[in-house]
């Protein structure tokens, strides 16, 4: 059983979606840390996106998306990525316009990178493309 779970996790991490979710989790964690060091107003965005990315990572890794049939997972993941991209773009622009500490500027730049990453995730996840 442990071999199956390890192989399933390794197999998912080798896919494009697995790598995207892993990078999203790491990027959200770094941005959360930088926002926490500079301003506490935008921590909730990174925290919510971090939690959602971890939940989707677990769902896809454990192959729960095939077992839970009443939720349309591609649309759910698409809207998660799209909303995250829009919100990261808006908050990053606000943070960069306000200026301030270096950690705030770095968080704003990483937020723009996260917005691009989430936009790419939304574009490859879009159910209309499949």
From TrEMBL:
<feature type="transmembrane region" description="Helical">
    <location>
        <begin position="20"/>
        <end position="37"/>
    </location>
</feature>
<comment type="function">
    <text>May play a role in cell differentiation in the intestinal epithelium.</text>
</comment>
<keyword id="KW-1133">Transmembrane helix</keyword>
<dbReference type="Pfam" id="PF01284">
    <property type="entry name" value="MARVEL"/>
</dbReference>
<dbReference type="InterPro" id="IPR050578">
    <property type="entry name" value="MARVEL-CKLF_proteins"/>
</dbReference>
<feature type="transmembrane region" description="Helical">
    <location>
        <begin position="43"/>
        <end position="66"/>
    </location>
</feature>
<keyword id="KW-0472">Membrane</keyword>
<feature type="transmembrane region" description="Helical">
    <location>
        <begin position="78"/>
        <end position="97"/>
    </location>
</feature>
<dbReference type="GO" id="GO:0016020">
    <property type="term" value="C:membrane"/>
</dbReference>
<protein>
    <recommendedName>
        <fullName>Proteolipid protein 2</fullName>
    </recommendedName>
</protein>
<feature type="domain" description="MARVEL">
    <location>
        <begin position="12"/>
        <end position="130"/>
    </location>
</feature>
<feature type="transmembrane region" description="Helical">
    <location>
        <begin position="103"/>
        <end position="120"/>
    </location>
</feature>
<dbReference type="InterPro" id="IPR008253">
    <property type="entry name" value="Marvel"/>
</dbReference>
<keyword id="KW-0812">Transmembrane</keyword>
